[in-house]
């Protein structure tokens, strides 16, 4: 009798055949367990959604009126004799890993995650398992994150310097997750914090959960002189748009793990890059794998082949699987999310 894995990679997504449920499926299904609110993991069209309760307002904001059931971290729920539970992923607010247990076998699907505590999302929690499905968006030794307190010190210093030169600071970050992390640690004593509509709308969904500094929405009525010396937090898609023309003179910066490479900054015509990611760096990935105690590791989206090869050299049973997840490439908004006020 052939062995059938507890979780399989299918054309619709990661599937548990015993429970007849999908994890972060990318095509419409009857029942989906969702790790977090980013568009590549929470798609429209499923008949039933299960997710952490703090993720519910986020995905409803993005997907509309959906049939969704919220769970607590660590709460066990059983579907067709398969035990499921959600555990903190530390990626963004409301993000989870999914633990799946059946007949003594335990699998964990991370979704997206990071092990550094960002002070906003519930910190990552290692979950013991036999098989670990891990993203490896930044699965190269070249990726090594600076502690975020140092990064935010540099961001606030950059803003202060721009203010002293009479310039507006434009800081680019994805509207869900990255933008809120930036807003949380900007120093309002330097000046006023303006926000793009996509970021203001998403932040308002989350504001009841997190203590953010006061922000001011950019509107058609906002005057050019209002921006001088202040900071504007906007999605990457706003860069180069007509929306930012009245903010001249301005200086742009992007906060992303890809800012590790100078070429990425040049290609995007960004003045300044701050290396800040909501994903693990190389050491973080290796630490996470080790702490699970897993012997089998499946790598998805990112530098999968390189990371799996290294794990095999360490003695793991490691392989790769293709998914439609994009990691930090998901920071490129869809047209709907990136609409700007002209």
What does this structure look like?
The protein has 342 residues and is α/β, with parallel strands linked by helices. It has two domains: 189 residues, 4-Layer Sandwich (Metallo-beta-lactamase, Chain A); 127 residues, Rossmann fold (3-Layer(aba) Sandwich), CATH 3.40.50.10890. It is 22% helix and 24% strand. It contains eight helices and 19 strands. The chain has a seven-stranded mixed sheet, with helices on one face. Strand 13, helix 4 and strand 14 form a beta-alpha-beta unit. The C terminus is likely disordered.
Secondary structure elements and their pairing?
Blueprint: E1 8-9, E2 14-16, E3 21-23, E4 31-33, E5 48-52, H1 56-63, E6 68-71, E7 77-79, E8 82-88, E9 96-102, E10 105-109, E11 131-136, H2 148-164, E12 168-172, H3 178-185, E13 193-195, H4 197-206, E14 216-217, H5 224-227, E15 231-234, E16 250-255, H6 262-267, E17 272-274, H7 282-292, E18 296-302, H8 304-313, E19 317-320
Parallel strand pairs: 3-4, 4-5, 5-6, 10-11, 11-18, 12-15, 12-16, 13-14, 13-15, 16-17, 18-19
Antiparallel strand pairs: 1-2, 2-3, 7-8, 8-9, 9-10
């Amino acid at each position: 009798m052939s062995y059938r894995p507890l979780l399989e990679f299918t054309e619709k997504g990661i599937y548990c055949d015993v429970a007849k449920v999908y994890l972060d499926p990318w095509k419409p299904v009857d029942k989906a367990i969702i790790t977090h609110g980013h568009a590549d993991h929470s798609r429209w069209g499923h008949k039933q959604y299960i997710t952490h309760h703090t993720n519910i307002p986020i995905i409803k904001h993005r997907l509309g009126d959906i049939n969704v059931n919220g769970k607590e971290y660590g709460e066990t729920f059983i579907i067709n004799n398969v035990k499921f539970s959600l555990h903190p992923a530390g990626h963004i607010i409301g993000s989870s890993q999914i633990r799946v247990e059946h007949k003594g076998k335990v699998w964990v699907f991370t979704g997206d995650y990071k092990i550094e505590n960002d002070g906003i999302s519930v910190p990552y929690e290692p979950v013991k398992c036999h098989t670990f499905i891990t993203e490896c968006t930044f699965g190269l030794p070249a990726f090594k994150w600076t502690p975020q307190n140092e990064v935010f010190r540099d961001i606030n210093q950059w803003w202060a310097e721009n203010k002293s030169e009479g310039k507006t600071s434009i800081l680019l970050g994805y509207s869900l997750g990255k933008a809120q992390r930036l807003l949380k640690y900007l120093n309002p004593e330097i000046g006023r914090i303006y926000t793009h509509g996509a970021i203001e709308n998403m932040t308002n969904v989350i504001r009841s959960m997190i203590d953010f500094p006061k922000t001011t929405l950019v509107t058609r009525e906002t005057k050019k002189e209002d921006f001088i010396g202040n900071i504007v937090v906007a999605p990457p898609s706003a860069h180069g748009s007509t929306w930012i023309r009245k903010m001249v003179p301005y200086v742009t910066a992007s906060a992303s793990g890809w800012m590790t490479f100078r070429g990425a900054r040049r290609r995007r015509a960004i003045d300044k890059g701050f290396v800040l990611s909501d994903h693990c760096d190389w050491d973080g990935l290796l630490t996470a794998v080790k702490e699970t105690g897993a012997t089998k590791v499946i790598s998805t989206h990112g530098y999968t082949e390189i990371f799996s090869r290294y794990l095999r050299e360490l003695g793991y049973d490691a392989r790769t699987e293709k998914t439609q997840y994009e990691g930090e490439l998901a920071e490129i908004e869809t047209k709907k999310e990136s609409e700007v006020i002209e």
